[in-house]
Amino acid sequence: MNDIRKTIHAKIVELARQLGHDARGLGYGEEIPSRGQLDSPALMELIIWFENEFGLEIDQDQLTMENFGTVNAMASYCEKSRS
């Protein structure tokens, strides 16, 4: 799961950099939206990337803070969905 977290974190850092922000210090348990480093389009790009990167199809009702609010939550969702 650590590799999944690193991959997700790296994508968030990349998206934030495109918006002129530095998200390298984002903790795996820190809420992504509350940091304010990704705008709504970037968050949607993150979700689309997540689906493509991990071969998942995410239902609209699964797009919650519990599943996608933090790097840890996203990695956990990925692990559960793949098993």
Description:
- Helices cover 63% and strands 0% of the residues.
- With 83 residues, it is mainly alpha-helical.
- The radius of gyration is 12 Å and the shape is globular.
- It contains 5 helices and no strands.
- The chain has helices at residues 2-18, 32-35, 40-54, 65-68, 71-82.
**CA-based shape:** globular
Radius of gyration: 12 Å
**Number of helix segments?**
5
- Termini separation (Å)? 13 Å
Strand content: under 5%
Number of strands: 0
What is the average per-residue confidence, as pLDDT, rounded to a whole number? 95
Order of helices and strands: HHHHH
Helicity level, as a percent range? 55-70%
Structural class: mainly alpha
Q: What composes the largest sheet?
A: none
Summarize this, please?
The chain is mainly alpha-helical and about 80 residues long. It contains 5 helices and no strands. Helix 1 packs antiparallel against helix 3 (about 40-55).
